[in-house]
């Protein structure tokens, strides 16, 4: 039976209870590498060894769940408890506010992070949120399967008590079926919590390439407020306008800019590129400012990260994961785009991958992405 995202599927099996959250007391600097970590640890190299004891004291702030489910990379695929080989991580960004439950969320940002076996580069591939996907049946949320947008796969996986972990698992399985890529780990990034991570870094340097007015935030007495909240209170905030040029941005400003898609020339594709730029800017700031070699600063940064991430790093030993990426620097992060960075409609207002994009995913699966990029330079996103 095929269903659409416009009506929920009737229950067909009892829902599985959401997996109990596990709190690990392992060195969190390694766990952070699953998300901002593929970002932050890329900047850190091996300089954190002396601070493991201090950093481990903050690990209880991080939520750890199984986010990959059936899409977890098997030993036969190169997975398991070793850092050897290529690494594939799924990063999912959600907009969750304090009063919102997990079963209301969509994955507004979807990024596949591929690190080749040489561990000297990192490739970021954004999956358009409006890509049409075929989701499999998913018992924990009572979802029978159906044709939906990629952003909605997370939503349907989170229903009926399956929670954010269910949403991540269904999205991961959907992407595995579509691209062939299995995942060593994954991270759910809460945009609202992510702001604190950027502020802990002291802001980031971003270059705005197109002027755009925020559809999410306005200013009241110089402070950002959600437009929806302001309207409820009868307030008329000043528009937040992101003007062309390069400058340092606070957390709220950088996140807001990276979330805009309406009013941009290429819509969601420009937003994907800006989000990739933000992750790279964070890695560069962490590296250049010395944050990643200062255990005290790391500890404070991780406490902020605890409000932003739900992580899954699979079976890899945490120190091995971080130290295994010591040769990947911020400047080695390559930003890639699907469909040449333009909307490719399937005729009903949804995206479909062009052949070159499908070939790019296969190259990632086979750990041949570096050569593919050399042969197809058009898939590299312009960073400005």
From TrEMBL:
What the entry lists under InterPro entries is as follows:
LytR/CpsA/Psr_CW_biosynth, LytR_CpsA_psr
Q: What transmembrane ranges does the database entry give?
A: 28-49
Q: What is this protein called?
A: Cell envelope-related function transcriptional attenuator common domain-containing protein
Q: Where is the composition biased (Pro residues)?
A: 8-18
**Keywords linked to the UniProt accession:** Membrane, Transmembrane, Transmembrane helix
What domain of life does the UniProt record list for this protein's source?
Answer: Bacteria
Which segment of the chain is annotated as a signal peptide?
Answer: none
| Family, similarity comment | Belongs to the LytR/CpsA/Psr (LCP) family.
Task: List, for all copies, the residue spans of the domain called Cell envelope-related transcriptional attenuator.
Answer: 106-287
**PANTHER family from the xrefs?**
POLYISOPRENYL-TEICHOIC ACID--PEPTIDOGLYCAN TEICHOIC ACID TRANSFERASE TAGU
Pfam families, per database record: LytR_cpsA_psr (PF03816)
Q: Does the keyword Transmembrane helix apply?
A: yes
For whether the record's keyword set contains Transmembrane, the answer is: yes
Extract the ranges annotated as region (Disordered): 1-21
């Amino acid at each position: 039976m095929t269903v659409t995202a416009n009506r929920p599927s009737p229950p067909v099996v009892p829902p599985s209870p959401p997996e109990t959250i596990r709190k690990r007391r392992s060195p969190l600097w390694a766990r952070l590498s699953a998300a901002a970590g593929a970002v932050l640890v890329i900047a850190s190299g091996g300089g954190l060894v002396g601070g493991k004891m201090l950093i481990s004291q903050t690990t209880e702030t991080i939520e750890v769940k199984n986010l990959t489910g059936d899409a977890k990379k098997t030993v036969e695929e190169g997975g398991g408890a070793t850092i050897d080989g290529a690494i594939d991580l799924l990063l999912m960004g959600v907009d969750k506010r304090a009063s919102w439950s997990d079963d209301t969320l969509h994955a507004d940002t979807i990024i596949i992070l591929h690190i080749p076996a040489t561990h000297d580069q990192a490739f970021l591939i954004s999956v358009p949120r409006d890509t049409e996907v075929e989701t499999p049946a998913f018992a924990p949320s009572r979802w029978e399967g159906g044709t939906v947008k990629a952003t909605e796969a997370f939503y349907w996986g989170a229903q009926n008590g399956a929670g954010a972990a269910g949403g991540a698992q269904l999205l991961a399985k959907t992407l595995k079926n579509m691209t062939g890529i299995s995942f060593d780990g994954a991270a759910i990034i809460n945009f609202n919590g992510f702001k604190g991570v950027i502020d802990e870094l002291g802001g980031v340097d971003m270059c705005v390439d197109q002027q755009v007015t925020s559809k999410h935030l306005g200013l009241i007495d110089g402070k950002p407020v959600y437009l929806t909240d302001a309207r409820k209170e009868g307030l008329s905030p000043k528009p937040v306008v992101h003007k062309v040029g390069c400058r340092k941005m606070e957390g709220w400003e950088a996140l807001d800019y990276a979330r805009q898609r309406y009013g941009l020339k290429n819509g969601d594709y420009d937003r994907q590129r800006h989000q990739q730029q933000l992750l790279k800017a964070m890695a560069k700031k962490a590296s250049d400012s010395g944050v990643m070699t200062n255990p005290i600063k790391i500890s404070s940064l991780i406490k902020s990260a605890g409000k932003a991430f739900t992580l899954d790093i699979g079976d890899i030993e945490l120190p091995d994961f971080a130290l295994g990426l010591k040769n990947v620097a911020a400047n080695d992060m390559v930003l890639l785009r699907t469909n040449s960075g333009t909307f490719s409609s399937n005729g009903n207002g949804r995206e479909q991958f062009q052949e070159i994009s499908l070939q790019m995913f296969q190259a990632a699966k086979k750990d041949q992405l570096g050569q593919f990029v050399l042969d197809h330079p058009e898939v590299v996103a312009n960073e400005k």
